[in-house]
WD40-repeat-containing domain protein (Coniella lustricola), 932 residues
Amino acid sequence: MDIHRCRFVPFPASPINTIAFSHPLLSSKRPARLAIGRANGDIEIWNPLHGSWFQESIIHGGRDRSIDSLVWVTGDDEVLSNGSVIIGRSRLFSIGYTTAVTEWDLEQGRARKHASGQHGDIWCMAAQPAPAPGSAAAAAGQSQRLVAGTIDGSIVLYSIDDDDLQFQRVLVKTAKRNIKMVSIAFQSRQIAVVGCSDSAIRVYDLRRGELLRKMTLGKDLVGGAKDIIVWSVKCLKNGDIVSGDSTGQIVIWDGKTYTQAQRIQGHKSDVLSLATSADGSSIISGGMDRRTALYRTTPRDPSRWQRVWHRKYHDHDVKAMASFEGHGMSVVVTGGPDATPVVTPLRQAGVENHRTLSHLPHSIPLQSAAQGRLIVSWWDREVHIWKLHRPMKDLLEGEDVEQNIENNRKLLGRILIKGESNITSASISRDGTLLFVATASAIKAFHLTLGADADDDLKIRKIQVPSSMESSGSTLVQLSPNSQWLCWIQDGTKVLATRITHDSSNQQDPISLHSRPAKLARLRRDIPKHVRLGGLGGYDRRITHATFSPDSNTIATADLAGYIDTWVLQQQSDDNSTLQNGATATANDDDDASSESDSDDDNNDDTFPPGPRWTRSPKAALFPKLSHSPVVLSFSDAALGPALRQDEDGSNKDTTDKDKYILLAITASSRIYTFHALEGALTRWSRRNATWKLPDEIRATRDLIKGALWQGSRVWMYGTSFLFMLDIAIDYEDDEAAGAKSNGTGSSSNKASRKRKRGTDTGAGSKMESAQALAPQHLRIAGGSGGEWVDVEMADAEADSHNDDEDDDSSEEEDGELQKLRERQQQQQQQQQNAAKNKESSTSSEGTVAKRRNWWHTYKYRPILGVVPLSSTASEEETHDAVANGASRKKKENSGSAKAKQQTASTVPTLEVALVERPKWDVDTPTRYIED
């Protein structure tokens, strides 16, 4: 594989302004989510996933928008007559230094409601605690409210009763107009603690709007500002109050007398954020000095606090943080202007390492036009179009390689999308002539024309889009490989498709879209009512992936719940019998196969042009539910189905054309599944190769897989910090079983070693001893120039990389898991050498013998924004032959001794890709107020 290592594609990271957990304490019934608000208006929804930290979705913002505070509100549980419990509904609210409060619809990925009142800009907001079950407040029907502090010194109330959001009234208004309400927390249901900008903390009784106590901090230090700003306040479980201010001090206040109990100089500058443990035994603070500090009570006197340690995990201010505990997890997530979330252990602080999550989105803001060698990238409301003129092999032939690489790329054009909303998705045709861009409120289409001369500027012309389609908006848009169909996801759950007509005779409008899209009905899943109506509601049915098969005859989608839906393109007969019969067969396959809201009859509308129609795949209901949310959904680029269906004797029982493409699905738990798309069944490779059989390097990584590319039967998977290759035409065997066979001790293995364990960590990094031992190994591949070009087909690549690693690491101290890993690699290499000596010599049809690599990995590239293909030169027949040769190699036993079957030479299609890195140091961040 030839790799263009690209860092010229810009992707500015947006600062983190606020972090909020839906539940500080995780229970077995309530789904917990982490919401991160950014300065560009984006809201990221993360699933802790027992320490895997999966970014499920992004609600994109817009121009001049900012998310400065996020608040989750959870309703009361409801017990049904059958004994089942409807978990209280979780709702997400935000402010952005305006007078408005916004509620967000997580399922549709857009704002649900706005509310505003006659007051100044809101600077802080908190949710009133719900009344305790059985209390007088609960009996009186009192509910939660949102309490906000404003820039003009007011405390205002917002009602969220009856699933609504309305401004209620101004509760308190201070006499001095220059006082700003900066932070807010609740000591009890009716007592609110507010940090202000005039060196004071005010305690209010919300029942009467009465000021209970004003606690002053005095004057700032010598040479400082006149007033102290209380940037953050928190309340402990015992009622005590903790404040962090602009002097860098942490102040603990007695919750009964409202007097100062202790003052700690925790930071060199302003304390911007605070978090506490659920039991009130720990306090965490973050400040402008980039420090994250931990405080705990002294063993001799529980009423006295001391700073245990402090660390600098961030490159900028620590502006926001939130704690999360439950199910063995105990962490604090912090963030700031450096745009990078950091997960810090709380209960095991000082014992476990922190973990830095990627500042890059999990959804890839890149696509390529392989035939035109174009790369399209987007962020906010801008689209950039780049071109790489020459293949990497040609660049390495000259003397000045670096200059050749520098001159090889060119920015052809920029597109600024009109409107307020940021781009949610984009898709470009393979030849680079069609480009579709989607926002939450509109879909835009462009026709791209590039002259014969590489230096000519790109001509961009807007294509007229039907008004019903343009104004619908989309969370995901995908163009078919043959550029004849456009599929998009509306409101997060609806799948629509429309036909694209190409008419070269029409000079004014050579490309047009049909005005009435087809609605593709999804299967209705058997989800219990108490699950569907509670918690996050229908958020799990939000579609995150949509893909076309290479022949453009199949569409597959996957949602957060792990359900896969497929549709096929069928030719319509005169009486529509073909289409209707296909839909009827689908409905009869499963009791739950009826559509959720739309019928297949929507596709039979007379206004839709004659020709092929989309109908649900007859065996779509047979797809199993994935164990976790999908992170990758991709069709193979070539006809792999028949080769992967081979039986033990090498025969094929079914080689029909309908099953020639393989559907790859990778989950957030790093489980890899391959399906026969139209049969809804796992392939033979998936049935024979469980997760625990895959190489340890793939199973042990903590970063999730972001994307995948195909090279024949090879799957190239990548995440933020790694690039892996698996050959799905080859069966894998777990290391322990292989070692037992080679030693003559049998093939049984320890089942405990097969399971992928997160370990004993609490959701951040691993224990400090293991973290040092598991440092990533950089695998050097021969045949490159400065690491720019990788050719994994070279015969000596594995041996050279192994020797280079031994030389580079010979002076390092080795112990623990790293030593075991190296010993295992040496053992594997020795076994391969012995097998090579003992195997029978034979030649292929060309008279040569070649070894096929079954997997490969490297940690050389990081952080990876995305990898996109540029060209592929193999024909479908060549790919099929290569896969068949690889799948037919098996070991056979004769007279109690293993005898290796001869390996025939097999070729794989050449693949050229552009790998885009966006290092953290290359991202512009706001200017820091202090330097240390």
About this structure: The CA atoms of residues 705 and 719 lie 4 Å apart. The chain has a mean pLDDT of 80.
